[in-house]
Amino acid sequence: MLGKILVSTLAVCVILNVNGDRYRDIEQAISAALEIVTIRRFASIPRPLIKDPANPVSQRGALARRRENQEIVAKYGFAADLVETATVLYAERHGGRLPNAEAFRAAIAPFCPTKIAMCENNCRYRSADGSCNNRNHPEWGTTFSPQARFLPPDYGDQLYIGITPRFKSVTGHRLPSPREISNSVHDAGMTAPRDHIYNINLIHFGLVVFLDVISTPLLQDGDENIVCCIGDEPVKRPACFPFFTLPGEFSHTCRSFVRSEMAPSQGCIPGPRNQMNQKTSYLDLSLIYGNSIEGEQRFRQFGSGHPDSFDAILNIFHVIFLRENDKILRDLKHLGWNGDSLYREARKILSAIYQHIVYTEYVPAVIGQEAMLRYGLKSTRYGHNTMYNPTRDATTSNVFATAAFRFAHSNFDTLENDVIEGFSPETFQNYSNLVTNSPSSYTLFTRFQSKTDRFMTDFGRNKVWESEPRNSVDTMSFDIQRGRDHGLPSYNRWREYCGLRPILHFGKGIMGFADHTIGAIKALSSVYRHPNDIDLMSGAMAERHVSGGIVGPTFACLLGEQFALFKTGDRFFYENDFYPTGFTKGQLREIKKQSLSSVMCRHVNVPAVPQNAFISPKAGVPLIPCMTFPKLDLREWDLHGTY
C-alpha cells in the first residue's frame, strides 16, 4: 500500500491548462505539501516514539479507535493531510487568503480519492458501506467520510484550518488543562449519585447505538501507533496534543494524546479539517453485520462483521442481537427464504426492530417527550410514517460524536467497570454467558445506572485502562481534549445555536446561568476565566435535565437534531412506505409489536421483565411475565403461501 501511494503521488505531474501566477502557486503548494506529508506519514520513526502495547491509551485505542481498514484510512487520511498542508502553504504566501476552490480542486484531483458507487434503481436492501442510500448524493453517510458540522469549527490557528487545536481563552491566556477541569467540575469521589428510574440496560444499549454510527481512528505513523510524551516531556509533532496533570496524580505529568485522523471533503476542496468516521451514518447495525462487503462475508462465515469484535466486546446487546438474527434466519428459512436474500432480509428485519426500539424507547428516555415532539422523532403506533427527505444528509455530526453522545460517560458504574478492567475476548464470552444464561441476568433490569450529570466516579477519572498503578486514563479529560482537537466551538456558541440564551457572566442573574445549580456555577467559575471559554462537554453536562430526560437542554437539542437526521435522511428507515425498500402493512405491524423487553425475553434467562426494559422495577413499575410479550411472528414473510 505504501509503495502504491508513493509511486502514484510522486510520479504524477500536475498540469493545469490555466494561466496566471495564482494557479501556478497552487501547483507549487501541492508539490511542496506532497513532500512534507509523505515524510510526515511514512518516514521511519525512532522506537521510543512507538507506543508501548501496555500503555492505557493504546488499550483504549484498540477498543474504540482501531482502524477498520488500514489501507483505506491511510489513503483518505493522506489526501486530507495533503489538502490541509497545501492550503496552509498557499495561504502563507498570499497573506492568509485561501486558494480558489475550483482551481485547487482541479490541481489536487490526481491525489484525491473518489467514491464511485454503482447504484441500482430498485435495490431492496441497503448497502454495507452506506452508499446509494441517497440517490442524488450516493456518498452521503458512507464509511470513511468526514464527520458533518452543525457549526464551523473553532481551531487555534489563524486560518481556523485545524493544524492547531482550540487552545486559547478569549482573554488571550491558554485554556485550563482538561485534567484541571475534570478535578474542579467532574470529580464525584469514589461513588456517584444513582439514578432512581433507569437501569444499566440504558447505558449498554446506548453503547450499541454509539458504536453503530461513529468510529474515529487516530493518526498513526504508517502502521504504527504514536505516543506524545516521553516520561514527563511532551513530544512536539503535528499529530500530538498532550496535556499536563499535577505531580503524583499519574505516573507522569505529561498525558499522551494523539489527534484524530482526518478525511477529505468531496472533491478535496480546501477548508477546515474534518475528522473521519469509519462507520456508516445510519442505524443499520453495521457494528454487528459489518460495514463493507468483506465485513458482511465475515459475518456470514463467523457470526461477526468484524475480524476481532473489538467494537462490541463490552456490550451484552451484541450477543442478544446475534441470537435474534439467528432466530430470524431459522424462521425465514422455514418460510422459503434462501441464499443471499435470506441473509439480507434477516438483517432488514432485525435492523427495523432495532430502529423501532431506538425511537420508541431509547431516545425518549434520553431527551424526553417534549424534545421528541419538537424534532419530529415520534414513531406512529400503527402503520407507515414516511418522513424521508432526500435533501437531508444523515451524516453523523462531529458534535454528536465528540460531545453530545458521550453524555453516558458519567454513567460508569461498578458492573461496567468490572467488564472494562477485565477486558479480553475470553472474559467477554464468559460474561455474556453469565448474563444471558443465569439468574444473575436479572441485574440488567434491577440495577440503577449512575445518574447522568457532571460527576464522574474515581474509576472513570483515574482507573480506566489502568495497566499498572497510576498509569491510566481520565475519561472526562480525554473527552474535553478531544473536543478541542476537533475544533468544537465553546459551550456558549452551542447554546446560541440551539436557541438558548448565552451566558455572559458567572452568576445566576440576568444574562447569567439559567440551567445550572449554584454548585455547578461555582465549579465552572473556579477553573474558567470567561463563560465563552467553557468547553461544551463540561458546560452541557453541568446543566439541569430537561423534563422527562436525562440530559440538559443543550445536549437534548444536539441529540434531537442528529436523531432527526438519522430518521429523515435514511431512505431505508423502517417506517417509510417505499417499494421495494419498505415493509408491507402486515410486516410493519409485526415489527411495531416488538420492544427491547420482548427481544430480551427471548434470549435472556429471566421469567419476567418491566414493560420498558430501561426502567428498573425498583422504580415501582410492575414485572410482566415474558410469556405475555408478543412473539416475532414472521408469517407475513411467507414465500410458500401456506398461511
Automatic annotation (TrEMBL):
GO terms for biological process: response to oxidative stress. Its EC number is 1.11.1.7. It comes from the Eukaryota. The keyword Oxidoreductase applies. It is found in: Secreted. PROSITE patterns: PEROXIDASE_3 (PS50292). Coiled coil: none annotated. GO terms for cellular component: extracellular region. This is PXDN.
